[in-house]
Amino acid sequence: MNVLFEYIFTSRSQVQTFCRCLSPGTPVHLFTLWAPLKLVQDRESSRPNRAPLGYRLLDTYAAMERSLDQLGTLLNNTGSLEDTLGEIEAHLAHAVGPPAQSYLRNINA
Known about the structure:
This protein has helices spanning 12-20, 37-45, 55-67, 81-93, and strands at 31-34, 73-76. By secondary structure, the chain is mainly α.
């Protein structure tokens, strides 16, 4: 069984906190979807029925950017949703996720 958990992790400590809540042997595949700031801003401004994030978008982007090497597999998120899902599926088909406990030591293990 696979479970998809979507959350914006901005630091290694947030990933570690999440992994501490899992059974130690639970396989974890950690992906960070990344796009240029201008594209992220354009996407955010076009979301219906939601107040603009404003400075929170910039703060979150900057925090993530500082921690990209700690946030798992980095995926280019400039294409379509289908392209991104295909890339994730390709990674999952060829890899066994490291157990949750390994993220407590080294994010990119």
